[in-house]
Amino acid sequence: MTCPVFPKPAKSKASLWKVFFTKRRSWLDALYERSYGMKMGEYKLPGLRLYMVNQPELVRRIMVQEVGNFPKNRLLGDILEPLLGESIFTTNGEQWQKQRNMLDPAFKHARVQQVFGLMQDAANDMLARLEHHRPGQDIDPEMTYVTADIIFRTIMSTQLPPDQANRILEAFVRFQAESPKLALRKMFNLPGWLQRGRSERKRLQAAQEIRTAIEDIVRPRYRQAEAARAGCPQSRAALEQQQDILSSLLLTTDNTTGQPFSFSEIVDQISMLFLAGHETSASALTWSLYLLALYPEVQEDAHAEVVRVLEQQPMSVEAIRKMVLVRDIFREALRLYPPVGFLSRECTHATDMRDKHMPAGSSVMISPWLIHRHQEFWDNPHGFDPYRFTGKNLKTPLSKSYLPFGAGPRVCIGAAFAQQEASLILASILRDYRFTLAEGFAPQPVGRLTIRSENGLQLVLTRREQQQS
Ligand code: HEM
Protein backbone atom coordinates (compact mmCIF):
# COMPACT_ATOMS: atom_id res chain seq x y z
CA MET A 1 0.00 0.00 0.00
CA THR A 2 1.43 3.41 -0.99
CA CYS A 3 2.31 5.58 1.96
CA PRO A 4 2.11 9.38 1.63
CA VAL A 5 5.54 11.01 1.72
CA PHE A 6 7.13 12.02 4.97
CA PRO A 7 10.80 12.81 5.64
CA LYS A 8 12.53 9.67 6.82
CA PRO A 9 13.59 10.34 10.42
CA ALA A 10 17.25 9.92 11.41
CA LYS A 11 18.04 6.82 13.48
CA SER A 12 19.14 8.89 16.47
CA LYS A 13 19.20 12.45 17.77
CA ALA A 14 21.68 14.67 15.87
CA SER A 15 24.33 16.65 17.78
CA LEU A 16 23.52 20.31 18.38
CA TRP A 17 26.14 21.52 15.92
CA LYS A 18 24.94 19.14 13.25
CA VAL A 19 21.44 20.54 13.74
CA PHE A 20 22.75 24.08 13.42
CA PHE A 21 24.82 23.54 10.29
CA THR A 22 22.76 20.99 8.39
CA LYS A 23 19.13 21.18 9.53
CA ARG A 24 18.40 24.81 8.84
CA ARG A 25 16.45 23.95 5.69
CA SER A 26 13.57 22.37 7.62
CA TRP A 27 12.91 21.56 11.25
CA LEU A 28 11.35 18.25 10.11
CA ASP A 29 14.88 17.06 9.29
CA ALA A 30 15.91 17.40 12.95
CA LEU A 31 13.38 14.72 14.03
CA TYR A 32 14.56 11.19 14.69
CA GLU A 33 12.83 7.82 15.03
CA ARG A 34 12.10 8.08 18.75
CA SER A 35 10.47 11.51 18.25
CA TYR A 36 7.42 9.66 16.82
CA GLY A 37 6.87 7.64 19.98
CA MET A 38 7.93 9.89 22.83
CA LYS A 39 5.62 11.73 25.21
CA MET A 40 8.07 14.36 26.31
CA GLY A 41 11.58 15.35 25.26
CA GLU A 42 14.16 17.81 26.54
CA TYR A 43 16.70 19.78 24.47
CA LYS A 44 19.38 21.96 25.97
CA LEU A 45 20.50 24.59 23.50
CA PRO A 46 22.95 27.43 24.22
CA GLY A 47 20.16 30.03 23.95
CA LEU A 48 17.33 28.18 25.60
CA ARG A 49 16.02 25.09 27.28
CA LEU A 50 13.31 23.47 25.23
CA TYR A 51 10.71 20.85 26.16
CA MET A 52 8.72 18.97 23.54
CA VAL A 53 5.38 17.89 25.02
CA ASN A 54 3.26 15.27 23.21
CA GLN A 55 1.27 13.66 26.03
CA PRO A 56 -2.40 14.68 25.65
CA GLU A 57 -2.99 15.37 29.38
CA LEU A 58 0.04 17.67 29.50
CA VAL A 59 -0.96 19.36 26.25
CA ARG A 60 -4.34 20.06 27.83
CA ARG A 61 -2.67 21.47 30.93
CA ILE A 62 -0.59 23.87 28.83
CA MET A 63 -3.22 24.93 26.33
CA VAL A 64 -6.46 24.79 28.29
CA GLN A 65 -6.13 24.49 32.06
CA GLU A 66 -3.13 26.70 32.82
CA VAL A 67 -2.99 28.97 29.76
CA GLY A 68 -1.86 31.94 31.86
CA ASN A 69 1.30 30.08 32.94
CA PHE A 70 2.17 29.14 29.35
CA PRO A 71 1.90 32.25 27.14
CA LYS A 72 3.05 32.39 23.53
CA ASN A 73 6.80 32.22 23.18
CA ARG A 74 8.75 35.47 22.80
CA LEU A 75 10.94 33.86 20.16
CA LEU A 76 7.92 33.47 17.88
CA GLY A 77 6.94 37.10 18.48
CA ASP A 78 10.48 38.27 17.64
CA ILE A 79 10.48 36.30 14.40
CA LEU A 80 7.08 37.46 13.21
CA GLU A 81 7.24 41.03 14.52
CA PRO A 82 8.62 42.68 11.34
CA LEU A 83 5.64 41.33 9.42
CA LEU A 84 2.84 41.21 11.97
CA GLY A 85 3.81 43.89 14.49
CA GLU A 86 1.89 43.32 17.73
CA SER A 87 -0.92 41.20 16.37
CA ILE A 88 -3.24 38.72 18.06
CA PHE A 89 -1.11 35.76 16.92
CA THR A 90 1.80 36.63 19.19
CA THR A 91 0.50 38.91 21.96
CA ASN A 92 -0.45 37.74 25.45
CA GLY A 93 -2.56 38.77 28.46
CA GLU A 94 -4.82 41.80 28.31
CA GLN A 95 -3.50 42.97 24.96
CA TRP A 96 -4.36 39.60 23.40
CA GLN A 97 -7.81 39.49 25.09
CA LYS A 98 -8.67 42.94 23.71
CA GLN A 99 -7.64 41.89 20.20
CA ARG A 100 -9.51 38.58 20.43
CA ASN A 101 -12.71 40.35 21.60
CA MET A 102 -12.40 42.67 18.65
CA LEU A 103 -11.92 39.92 16.05
CA ASP A 104 -14.20 37.17 17.42
CA PRO A 105 -17.51 38.59 16.09
CA ALA A 106 -16.14 38.71 12.53
CA PHE A 107 -15.43 34.97 12.60
CA LYS A 108 -18.68 33.72 14.12
CA HIS A 109 -20.32 30.94 12.09
CA ALA A 110 -23.11 33.15 10.75
CA ARG A 111 -20.63 35.75 9.57
CA VAL A 112 -18.46 33.12 7.90
CA GLN A 113 -21.51 31.81 6.06
CA GLN A 114 -22.28 35.33 4.81
CA VAL A 115 -18.95 35.46 2.95
CA PHE A 116 -19.61 32.19 1.11
CA GLY A 117 -20.59 34.11 -2.05
CA LEU A 118 -17.27 35.99 -2.04
CA MET A 119 -15.40 32.71 -1.56
CA GLN A 120 -17.33 31.22 -4.45
CA ASP A 121 -16.42 34.13 -6.76
CA ALA A 122 -12.74 33.49 -5.96
CA ALA A 123 -13.19 29.73 -6.51
CA ASN A 124 -14.83 30.37 -9.89
CA ASP A 125 -11.93 32.60 -10.92
CA MET A 126 -9.59 29.80 -9.86
CA LEU A 127 -11.49 27.36 -12.12
CA ALA A 128 -11.10 29.78 -15.01
CA ARG A 129 -7.32 29.93 -14.42
CA LEU A 130 -7.12 26.14 -14.17
CA GLU A 131 -8.31 25.89 -17.77
CA HIS A 132 -4.79 27.06 -18.68
CA HIS A 133 -3.04 24.61 -16.35
CA ARG A 134 -0.31 22.80 -18.30
CA PRO A 135 0.14 19.05 -17.70
CA GLY A 136 2.62 18.59 -14.86
CA GLN A 137 2.51 22.29 -13.85
CA ASP A 138 2.94 23.06 -10.15
CA ILE A 139 -0.49 23.69 -8.58
CA ASP A 140 0.81 24.99 -5.25
CA PRO A 141 1.10 28.64 -6.45
CA GLU A 142 -2.56 28.44 -7.53
CA MET A 143 -3.61 27.28 -4.04
CA THR A 144 -1.63 30.17 -2.57
CA TYR A 145 -3.24 32.59 -5.01
CA VAL A 146 -6.83 31.49 -4.46
CA THR A 147 -6.55 31.49 -0.66
CA ALA A 148 -4.86 34.91 -0.67
CA ASP A 149 -7.56 36.16 -3.03
CA ILE A 150 -10.26 34.89 -0.65
CA ILE A 151 -8.63 36.73 2.25
CA PHE A 152 -8.43 39.97 0.27
CA ARG A 153 -12.07 39.70 -0.85
CA THR A 154 -13.50 38.79 2.56
CA ILE A 155 -11.29 40.85 4.86
CA MET A 156 -10.74 43.98 2.77
CA SER A 157 -13.45 43.79 0.05
CA THR A 158 -10.80 44.06 -2.61
CA GLN A 159 -9.57 41.75 -5.31
CA LEU A 160 -5.98 40.78 -5.67
CA PRO A 161 -4.68 41.84 -9.11
CA PRO A 162 -2.19 39.24 -10.41
CA ASP A 163 0.87 41.54 -10.49
CA GLN A 164 0.30 42.77 -6.92
CA ALA A 165 -0.47 39.22 -5.79
CA ASN A 166 2.75 37.93 -7.27
CA ARG A 167 4.78 40.66 -5.59
CA ILE A 168 3.24 39.98 -2.17
CA LEU A 169 3.39 36.21 -2.43
CA GLU A 170 6.96 36.20 -3.70
CA ALA A 171 8.01 38.48 -0.82
CA PHE A 172 6.34 36.08 1.58
CA VAL A 173 8.29 33.14 0.12
CA ARG A 174 11.51 35.07 0.88
CA PHE A 175 10.32 35.92 4.40
CA GLN A 176 9.40 32.31 5.09
CA ALA A 177 12.70 30.94 3.70
CA GLU A 178 14.85 33.18 5.92
CA SER A 179 12.80 32.87 9.15
CA PRO A 180 14.01 29.43 10.38
CA LYS A 181 17.62 30.63 10.05
CA LEU A 182 16.92 33.48 12.46
CA ALA A 183 15.08 31.10 14.82
CA LEU A 184 18.11 28.82 14.95
CA ARG A 185 20.52 31.72 15.45
CA LYS A 186 18.39 32.86 18.39
CA MET A 187 18.11 29.34 19.82
CA PHE A 188 21.89 29.05 19.68
CA ASN A 189 22.21 32.46 21.30
CA LEU A 190 24.51 33.83 18.62
CA PRO A 191 25.73 37.40 19.17
CA GLY A 192 23.40 40.19 17.98
CA TRP A 193 25.54 41.18 14.98
CA LEU A 194 25.31 37.61 13.62
CA GLN A 195 21.55 37.74 14.00
CA ARG A 196 21.45 40.87 11.83
CA GLY A 197 23.37 39.53 8.81
CA ARG A 198 22.42 39.41 5.13
CA SER A 199 19.69 36.82 5.65
CA GLU A 200 18.00 39.02 8.27
CA ARG A 201 18.18 42.06 5.99
CA LYS A 202 16.50 40.05 3.23
CA ARG A 203 13.81 38.97 5.68
CA LEU A 204 13.12 42.51 6.91
CA GLN A 205 12.93 43.83 3.38
CA ALA A 206 10.43 41.13 2.40
CA ALA A 207 8.27 41.93 5.47
CA GLN A 208 8.35 45.64 4.63
CA GLU A 209 7.24 44.98 1.04
CA ILE A 210 4.20 43.02 2.26
CA ARG A 211 3.29 45.62 4.87
CA THR A 212 3.59 48.44 2.34
CA ALA A 213 1.16 46.66 0.01
CA ILE A 214 -1.32 46.16 2.86
CA GLU A 215 -0.87 49.76 4.09
CA ASP A 216 -1.73 51.01 0.60
CA ILE A 217 -5.07 49.19 0.78
CA VAL A 218 -5.86 50.13 4.38
CA ARG A 219 -4.87 53.84 4.16
CA PRO A 220 -7.86 55.18 2.14
CA ARG A 221 -10.28 53.20 4.29
CA TYR A 222 -8.59 54.50 7.46
CA ARG A 223 -8.97 58.08 6.21
CA GLN A 224 -12.62 57.36 5.50
CA ALA A 225 -13.01 56.16 9.11
CA GLU A 226 -11.33 59.34 10.40
CA ALA A 227 -13.74 61.43 8.33
CA ALA A 228 -16.67 59.39 9.68
CA ARG A 229 -15.52 60.02 13.25
CA ALA A 230 -15.20 63.73 12.46
CA GLY A 231 -18.93 63.70 11.59
CA CYS A 232 -19.02 63.15 7.81
CA PRO A 233 -22.28 61.18 7.23
CA GLN A 234 -21.28 59.98 3.73
CA SER A 235 -18.04 58.50 5.06
CA ARG A 236 -19.86 56.74 7.89
CA ALA A 237 -22.46 55.33 5.50
CA ALA A 238 -19.74 54.12 3.12
CA LEU A 239 -17.85 52.50 5.97
CA GLU A 240 -20.91 50.75 7.35
CA GLN A 241 -21.94 49.55 3.94
CA GLN A 242 -18.69 47.62 3.44
CA GLN A 243 -19.43 44.76 5.80
CA ASP A 244 -15.97 43.31 5.75
CA ILE A 245 -13.61 42.63 8.62
CA LEU A 246 -11.60 45.76 7.94
CA SER A 247 -14.77 47.85 8.47
CA SER A 248 -15.48 46.23 11.80
CA LEU A 249 -11.90 46.91 12.92
CA LEU A 250 -12.16 50.52 11.79
CA LEU A 251 -15.45 51.04 13.63
CA THR A 252 -14.40 49.35 16.88
CA THR A 253 -13.24 51.41 19.81
CA ASP A 254 -11.38 50.27 22.90
CA ASN A 255 -13.85 49.49 25.74
CA THR A 256 -11.79 51.27 28.38
CA THR A 257 -10.29 54.28 26.57
CA GLY A 258 -12.96 54.76 23.91
CA GLN A 259 -10.14 55.27 21.41
CA PRO A 260 -10.21 53.74 17.92
CA PHE A 261 -7.34 51.57 16.75
CA SER A 262 -4.38 53.37 15.30
CA PHE A 263 -3.35 52.94 11.68
CA SER A 264 -0.41 50.71 12.58
CA GLU A 265 -2.54 48.58 14.96
CA ILE A 266 -4.99 47.95 12.14
CA VAL A 267 -2.21 47.14 9.68
CA ASP A 268 -0.80 44.66 12.25
CA GLN A 269 -4.12 42.77 12.50
CA ILE A 270 -4.78 42.79 8.77
CA SER A 271 -1.24 41.58 8.00
CA MET A 272 -1.73 38.80 10.53
CA LEU A 273 -5.08 37.75 9.06
CA PHE A 274 -3.51 37.76 5.62
CA LEU A 275 -0.63 35.56 6.77
CA ALA A 276 -2.54 33.23 9.13
CA GLY A 277 -5.48 33.05 6.77
CA HIS A 278 -3.91 32.18 3.43
CA GLU A 279 -0.62 30.42 4.09
CA THR A 280 -2.14 27.71 6.30
CA SER A 281 -5.12 27.06 4.04
CA ALA A 282 -2.93 26.96 0.92
CA SER A 283 -0.64 24.42 2.54
CA ALA A 284 -3.55 22.20 3.61
CA LEU A 285 -5.20 22.39 0.18
CA THR A 286 -2.05 21.44 -1.69
CA TRP A 287 -1.59 18.45 0.62
CA SER A 288 -5.24 17.46 0.15
CA LEU A 289 -4.78 17.48 -3.64
CA TYR A 290 -1.60 15.44 -3.29
CA LEU A 291 -3.41 12.78 -1.24
CA LEU A 292 -6.32 12.68 -3.68
CA ALA A 293 -3.92 12.28 -6.60
CA LEU A 294 -2.10 9.49 -4.78
CA TYR A 295 -5.34 7.61 -4.00
CA PRO A 296 -7.47 7.68 -7.20
CA GLU A 297 -10.16 5.44 -5.69
CA VAL A 298 -10.76 7.97 -2.89
CA GLN A 299 -10.77 10.72 -5.51
CA GLU A 300 -13.51 8.86 -7.42
CA ASP A 301 -15.57 8.38 -4.22
CA ALA A 302 -15.24 12.08 -3.44
CA HIS A 303 -16.15 13.08 -7.00
CA ALA A 304 -19.25 10.87 -6.79
CA GLU A 305 -20.24 12.50 -3.49
CA VAL A 306 -19.88 16.01 -4.95
CA VAL A 307 -21.92 15.12 -8.05
CA ARG A 308 -24.62 13.44 -5.91
CA VAL A 309 -25.02 16.49 -3.68
CA LEU A 310 -24.88 19.01 -6.53
CA GLU A 311 -27.57 17.14 -8.49
CA GLN A 312 -29.97 18.17 -5.73
CA GLN A 313 -28.86 21.73 -5.01
CA PRO A 314 -26.43 24.39 -6.22
CA MET A 315 -23.04 24.89 -4.56
CA SER A 316 -23.89 26.54 -1.24
CA VAL A 317 -23.06 26.37 2.47
CA GLU A 318 -25.73 23.65 2.86
CA ALA A 319 -24.38 21.67 -0.09
CA ILE A 320 -20.79 21.56 1.12
CA ARG A 321 -22.01 20.58 4.59
CA LYS A 322 -23.39 17.42 3.04
CA MET A 323 -20.01 16.53 1.50
CA VAL A 324 -18.77 14.51 4.44
CA LEU A 325 -16.02 12.67 2.58
CA VAL A 326 -14.61 15.92 1.17
CA ARG A 327 -14.54 17.31 4.72
CA ASP A 328 -12.81 14.19 6.02
CA ILE A 329 -10.19 14.22 3.25
CA PHE A 330 -9.34 17.75 4.36
CA ARG A 331 -9.27 16.61 8.00
CA GLU A 332 -6.94 13.76 7.15
CA ALA A 333 -4.67 16.11 5.17
CA LEU A 334 -4.56 18.34 8.26
CA ARG A 335 -3.63 15.29 10.35
CA LEU A 336 -0.81 14.13 8.10
CA TYR A 337 0.48 17.59 7.15
CA PRO A 338 -0.72 20.04 9.83
CA PRO A 339 0.23 23.45 8.40
CA VAL A 340 1.21 24.70 11.87
CA GLY A 341 3.49 21.82 12.82
CA PHE A 342 4.66 23.28 16.13
CA LEU A 343 2.89 25.44 18.71
CA SER A 344 5.34 27.34 20.79
CA ARG A 345 4.86 28.49 24.39
CA GLU A 346 6.94 29.64 27.33
CA CYS A 347 6.88 28.66 31.05
CA THR A 348 6.34 31.71 33.25
CA HIS A 349 7.00 29.69 36.45
CA ALA A 350 9.20 26.69 37.21
CA THR A 351 7.11 23.53 37.03
CA ASP A 352 7.34 19.73 36.78
CA MET A 353 6.08 17.51 33.98
CA ARG A 354 6.67 13.75 33.98
CA ASP A 355 10.24 13.35 35.28
CA LYS A 356 11.39 16.79 34.11
CA HIS A 357 11.86 19.95 36.14
CA MET A 358 11.26 22.91 33.83
CA PRO A 359 12.81 26.19 35.00
CA ALA A 360 10.92 29.47 34.55
CA GLY A 361 11.61 30.89 31.08
CA SER A 362 11.91 27.46 29.41
CA SER A 363 10.39 27.06 25.97
CA VAL A 364 7.65 24.51 25.42
CA MET A 365 6.81 23.04 22.03
CA ILE A 366 3.64 21.12 21.30
CA SER A 367 3.79 19.44 17.94
CA PRO A 368 0.61 18.60 16.01
CA TRP A 369 2.97 16.99 13.45
CA LEU A 370 4.29 14.48 16.03
CA ILE A 371 1.02 14.03 17.95
CA HIS A 372 -0.88 13.33 14.71
CA ARG A 373 1.67 10.63 13.78
CA HIS A 374 2.20 9.20 17.26
CA GLN A 375 2.00 5.40 17.12
CA GLU A 376 0.25 5.17 20.49
CA PHE A 377 -2.59 7.52 19.51
CA TRP A 378 -3.30 6.44 15.92
CA ASP A 379 -3.68 3.21 13.95
CA ASN A 380 -1.65 3.31 10.77
CA PRO A 381 -0.28 6.74 11.80
CA HIS A 382 1.59 7.54 8.58
CA GLY A 383 -1.12 6.11 6.30
CA PHE A 384 -3.94 8.01 4.53
CA ASP A 385 -7.40 6.96 5.71
CA PRO A 386 -10.09 9.67 5.47
CA TYR A 387 -12.70 7.10 6.49
CA ARG A 388 -11.17 6.82 9.96
CA PHE A 389 -13.15 9.84 11.16
CA THR A 390 -16.54 8.24 10.54
CA GLY A 391 -15.50 4.81 11.89
CA LYS A 392 -16.04 4.01 15.53
CA ASN A 393 -12.57 2.72 16.19
CA LEU A 394 -10.42 5.75 16.68
CA LYS A 395 -7.62 4.71 19.01
CA THR A 396 -7.76 7.96 21.01
CA PRO A 397 -10.62 10.52 21.02
CA LEU A 398 -9.99 13.33 18.55
CA SER A 399 -10.19 15.87 21.37
CA LYS A 400 -6.96 14.40 22.74
CA SER A 401 -4.88 13.57 19.73
CA TYR A 402 -5.97 15.92 16.94
CA LEU A 403 -5.13 19.62 17.09
CA PRO A 404 -4.51 21.12 13.65
CA PHE A 405 -6.22 24.32 14.82
CA GLY A 406 -4.66 24.32 18.31
CA ALA A 407 -6.84 24.16 21.43
CA GLY A 408 -8.19 26.20 24.36
CA PRO A 409 -8.69 29.96 24.31
CA ARG A 410 -5.97 30.46 21.67
CA VAL A 411 -7.62 28.04 19.25
CA CYS A 412 -7.62 29.22 15.64
CA ILE A 413 -10.17 31.97 15.11
CA GLY A 414 -10.49 31.01 11.43
CA ALA A 415 -11.14 27.25 11.72
CA ALA A 416 -14.73 27.42 10.41
CA PHE A 417 -13.67 29.87 7.69
CA ALA A 418 -10.85 27.51 6.61
CA GLN A 419 -13.07 24.42 6.58
CA GLN A 420 -15.69 26.21 4.47
CA GLU A 421 -13.22 27.56 1.89
CA ALA A 422 -11.35 24.23 1.69
CA SER A 423 -14.50 22.19 1.09
CA LEU A 424 -15.62 24.68 -1.55
CA ILE A 425 -12.28 24.66 -3.40
CA LEU A 426 -11.84 20.89 -3.23
CA ALA A 427 -15.44 20.25 -4.30
CA SER A 428 -15.08 22.67 -7.23
CA ILE A 429 -11.93 20.91 -8.49
CA LEU A 430 -13.29 17.41 -7.84
CA ARG A 431 -16.48 18.22 -9.75
CA ASP A 432 -14.66 19.41 -12.88
CA TYR A 433 -11.37 17.52 -12.98
CA ARG A 434 -9.69 14.16 -12.57
CA PHE A 435 -6.07 14.64 -11.54
CA THR A 436 -2.92 12.59 -11.16
CA LEU A 437 0.64 13.25 -10.09
CA ALA A 438 3.06 14.08 -12.91
CA GLU A 439 5.08 11.01 -13.93
CA GLY A 440 7.71 10.21 -11.27
CA PHE A 441 6.83 13.24 -9.12
CA ALA A 442 6.89 13.12 -5.29
CA PRO A 443 6.54 16.23 -3.10
CA GLN A 444 9.15 16.99 -0.42
CA PRO A 445 7.68 18.22 2.87
CA VAL A 446 9.66 20.95 4.61
CA GLY A 447 8.84 22.56 7.95
CA ARG A 448 9.30 26.33 7.99
CA LEU A 449 6.64 28.70 9.32
CA THR A 450 4.20 26.17 7.85
CA ILE A 451 4.64 22.72 6.35
CA ARG A 452 4.90 23.06 2.59
CA SER A 453 6.26 20.97 -0.25
CA GLU A 454 9.67 22.30 -1.23
CA ASN A 455 9.22 21.25 -4.86
CA GLY A 456 5.51 22.15 -5.05
CA LEU A 457 2.94 19.75 -6.46
CA GLN A 458 3.12 18.79 -10.12
CA LEU A 459 -0.32 17.65 -11.25
CA VAL A 460 -1.89 16.59 -14.52
CA LEU A 461 -5.51 17.78 -14.68
CA THR A 462 -8.05 16.35 -17.11
CA ARG A 463 -11.50 17.86 -17.45
CA ARG A 464 -14.13 15.26 -16.61
CA GLU A 465 -16.47 15.96 -19.55
CA GLN A 466 -13.54 15.80 -21.99
CA GLN A 467 -12.75 12.35 -20.66
CA GLN A 468 -16.29 11.13 -21.04
CA SER A 469 -16.72 12.37 -24.64
C1 HEM B 1 -6.22 25.15 7.41
C2 HEM B 1 -6.13 26.39 7.81
C3 HEM B 1 -5.65 26.82 9.16
C4 HEM B 1 -4.91 26.15 10.09
C5 HEM B 1 -4.38 24.72 10.03
C6 HEM B 1 -4.72 27.05 11.22
C7 HEM B 1 -4.05 26.72 12.37
C8 HEM B 1 -3.95 27.54 13.47
C9 HEM B 1 -3.35 27.15 14.72
C10 HEM B 1 -2.73 25.80 15.04
C11 HEM B 1 -3.46 28.20 15.57
C12 HEM B 1 -3.03 28.23 17.03
C13 HEM B 1 -1.57 28.57 17.17
C14 HEM B 1 -1.07 28.40 18.59
O1 HEM B 1 -1.82 27.97 19.47
O2 HEM B 1 0.12 28.68 18.81
C15 HEM B 1 -4.09 29.28 14.84
C16 HEM B 1 -4.34 30.53 15.36
C17 HEM B 1 -4.91 31.54 14.64
N1 HEM B 1 -5.43 31.47 13.36
FE1 HEM B 1 -5.46 29.84 12.19
N2 HEM B 1 -5.32 28.25 10.93
C18 HEM B 1 -5.91 28.15 9.70
C19 HEM B 1 -6.65 29.12 9.05
C20 HEM B 1 -6.89 30.38 9.54
C21 HEM B 1 -7.67 31.38 8.87
C22 HEM B 1 -8.40 31.18 7.54
C23 HEM B 1 -7.62 32.50 9.67
C24 HEM B 1 -8.27 33.85 9.46
C25 HEM B 1 -8.76 34.29 8.35
C26 HEM B 1 -6.83 32.19 10.83
C27 HEM B 1 -6.55 33.06 11.86
C28 HEM B 1 -5.93 32.70 13.03
C29 HEM B 1 -5.72 33.61 14.14
C30 HEM B 1 -6.14 35.07 14.19
C31 HEM B 1 -5.08 32.89 15.15
C32 HEM B 1 -4.64 33.41 16.51
C33 HEM B 1 -5.72 33.15 17.54
C34 HEM B 1 -5.31 33.59 18.94
O3 HEM B 1 -4.14 33.51 19.29
O4 HEM B 1 -6.21 34.01 19.66
N3 HEM B 1 -6.40 30.88 10.72
N4 HEM B 1 -4.39 28.84 13.57
Describe this structure as you would to a colleague.
With 469 residues, the chain is α+β, with helices and mostly antiparallel strands. It has one domain (16-163, 181-191, 276-468): Cytochrome p450. The protein has 20 helices and ten strands. The strands form four sheets. Strands 1-2-6-3 form a four-stranded mixed beta sheet. A two-stranded antiparallel sheet has the order 4-5. The longest helix is centred in the middle third of the chain and has 32 residues, at 198-229. Keywords: Heme, Iron, Metal-binding, Monooxygenase, Oxidoreductase. GO terms for molecular function: heme binding; iron ion binding; monooxygenase activity; oxidoreductase activity, acting on paired donors, with incorporation or reduction of molecular oxygen. Its cofactor is heme.
Q: Please, how many domains?
A: 1
Overall, the morphology is globular
Strand segment count: 10
Secondary structure category = alpha+beta
Chemical compounds bound to the protein: protoporphyrin IX containing FE
Strand content: 5-15%
Cofactor: heme
Keywords: Heme, Iron, Metal-binding, Monooxygenase, Oxidoreductase
Binding site for heme: 412
InterPro entries: Cyt_P450 (IPR001128), Cyt_P450_CS (IPR017972), Cyt_P450_E_grp-I (IPR002401), Cyt_P450_sf (IPR036396), Cytochrome_P450_Monoox (IPR050196)
How do the strands and helices of this protein lay out in sequence?
Elements: H1 16-22, E1 40-45, E2 48-53, H2 56-65, H3 74-84, H4 93-103, H5 109-114, H6 116-130, H7 140-156, H8 162-187, H9 192-195, H10 198-229, H11 233-241, H12 245-251, H13 263-294, H14 296-312, H15 317-321, H16 324-336, E3 343-346, E4 351-353, E5 356-358, E6 363-366, H17 368-371, H18 398-401, H19 415-432, E7 433-437, E8 445-447, E9 451-453, E10 459-463, H20 464-468
Parallel strand pairs: 2-6
Antiparallel strand pairs: 1-2, 3-6, 4-5, 7-10, 8-9
Helix pairs in contact: 3-8, 6-7, 6-19, 7-13, 8-10, 10-11, 10-12, 10-13, 13-16, 13-19
This protein binds protoporphyrin IX containing FE.
